[in-house]
Amino acid sequence: xxxxxxxxxxxxxxxxxxxxxxxxxxxxxxxxxxxxxxxxxxxxxxxxxxxxxxxxxxxxxxxxxxxxxxxxxxxxxxxxxxxxxxxxxxxxxxxxxxxxxxxxxxxxxxxxxxxxxxxxxxxxxxxxxxxxxxxxxxxxxxxxxxxxxxxxxxxxxxxxxxxxxxxxxxxxxxxxxxxxxxxxxxxxxxxxxxxxxxxxxxxxxxxxxxxxxxxxxxxxxxxxxxxxxxxxxxxxxxxxxxxxxxxxxxxxxxxxxxxxxxxxxxxxxxxxxxxxxxxxxxxxxxxxxxxxxxxxxxxxxxxxxxxxxxxxxxxxxxxxxxxxxxxxxxxxxxxxxxxxxxxxxxxxxxxxxxxxxxxxxxxxxxxxxxxxxxxxxxxxxxxxxxxxxxxxxxxxxxxxxxxxxxxxxxxxxxxxxxxxxxxxxxxxxx
Amino acid sequence: xxxxxxxxxxxxxxxxxxxxxxxxxxxxxxxxxxxxxxxxxxxxxxxxxxxxxxxxxxxxxxxxxxxxxxxxxxxxxxxxxxxxxxxxxxxxxxxxxxxxxxxxxxxxxxxxxxxxxxxxxxxxxxxxxxxxxxxxxxxxxxxxxxxxxxxxxxxxxxxxxxxxxxxxxxxxxxxxxxxxxxxxxxxxxxxxxxxxxxxxxxxxxxxxxxxxxxxxxxxxxxxxxxxxxxxxxxxxxxxxxxxxxxxxxxxxxxxxxxxxx
Lengths: 430, 261
Fold this sequence. Notes:
- Chain B: Belongs to the SleB family.
- Chain B: Residues 39-95 form the Peptidoglycan binding-like domain.
- By secondary structure, chain A is an alpha+beta fold.
- In chain A, 46% of the residues lie in helices and 24% in strands.
- Chain A has three domains: 23-187; 211-348, 2-Layer Sandwich (TATA-Binding Protein), CATH 3.30.310; 368-429, Roll (Nuclear Transport Factor 2, Chain: A), CATH 3.10.450.40.
- Chain B has eleven helices and five strands.
- Chain B has helices at residues 2-21, 41-52, 66-78, 89-98, 103-111, 146-160, 165-180, 188-192, 199-202, 212-222, 243-246, and strands at 115-116, 128-129, 233-235, 250-254, 257-260.
- In chain B, a hairpin with a 2-residue loop joins strand 4 (250-254) and strand 5 (257-260).
């Protein structure tokens, strides 16, 4: 009797498990199919748009005057952006997709900027070559994605082939080819190169400091931290600029500071600890930030803005250049101050180390009444150096304007090149 | 004697009634000055009071931005106060006297994730609408949204919750560096959900609820900190299977992660 019962229970359990497994497998297959269909659609879309991009690119080569090709150039920018977005969401080889996105972005930007900064002959030369290279890539792309687009491979098979040691599609080679095309077709401009050098701090031409000097620098800038240094490590060999990474503990606080080897400049500092009750006013906290900067020898900065968060205030200070009295928004320092006791618990000075090279510019007299709609009111107008889309530092009117938007006041930051009146940026402020 | 007792009782009754019917406005606001960039419950009170008397039409969210600033200046102008857009003691006193604030009603609705269609001047039930509220008590740089903060906190918690604080800020910074880099998608969502980019997305850990530490780390990255020193990749050398990732120039090791270009 017991045996019979057991057999019954086991048989019943087996049936339940089988039904569950079958349902699960069916569900997984459906999900996998839905996913591969989505990817196939995106790949097919990208291929179709590549055709359109090639066609738009060739159309722009028909004209000497940039007005004639304006519509096609807008199409190049839109299509390259669409394809880039599709590529970003597809399961592809990482090195290939990054190079591919970069190339597409550069084609789009070049076409967009053509009427402002490129001579027609130069445009023809660059885009003829790009069109040729794009044709080659188009063929390779069609071949490489055929398996998924034609429904030949399931999602699992596609992923396995992608991750195989010897994949049937040479993604890595395709990625390398595109990289070469990028370098030859769209080399970095002087401004891009300068901007990159600044960001990577490659060219600091100051003497190297030792590890001991770096630790001493830390103690000078943050004298209130007890400086129980846990460890000092040099940056790894791949870093474009060598620095010391110093970790420290101070009571319940633990944190780090990075200091460049050349010149011993602070890159960034952060300290983490439990926080007590807020006890200081905003003015007291702001003063702590300002006093700290002066004591640390950052003396050409002015307060720009602040943001309160649960445990700390984040402050932004920017450099003020003496000739025009203009703020330089790329030379910025961030300071984080604790709300409970006013300690400086964060400093970010990486962008301040290598100051921007600024050029004098003429300042065109602007008729703002003509420039803005009559509803717009200018509430602040100051001069500032701001980076434009071509990564050049431009002296600009840094305007804060308002407009009545159905009963609420909308506030905007509008940046206008002081010489050319080009609108560099418009941003809604919250 | 009876007359005296009657008089005393009448006076006491009058004083009691006056006290009972007067609006409860004692100890309104905290003692600090409220200026642009501030956040917190007293900003909620400031916005609610300004809205109650028709100076503020924006969202009651506890963030002192430009909307609150212009509304406060209008109030100061109309009430003969110095116009500086800062709610100091004098401004707060005038505002408290001129408006009414039902703290429990306002805070309860905000906690429920409701938002105000308009606070004050009509029946309580028609002042709020369900949903659309639910704010983090943070003030972000203009170019980022609370959605960005939430999504990045999920990614950081899923990817690096066991890492030191510095390591968590660095992971958040890598996401932002990718958004700025030509080789990657242009949005935070695009970067995080790029197929194969983050393990936490692939194994679903991105949907774990992030803790305050992860949010704080993201906040520091959004405010400009980058302990990764401009890195666009990171990996755990113990678990990494991709050969390609080892070919990237390595910058720095934080906790278990190697950050690279």
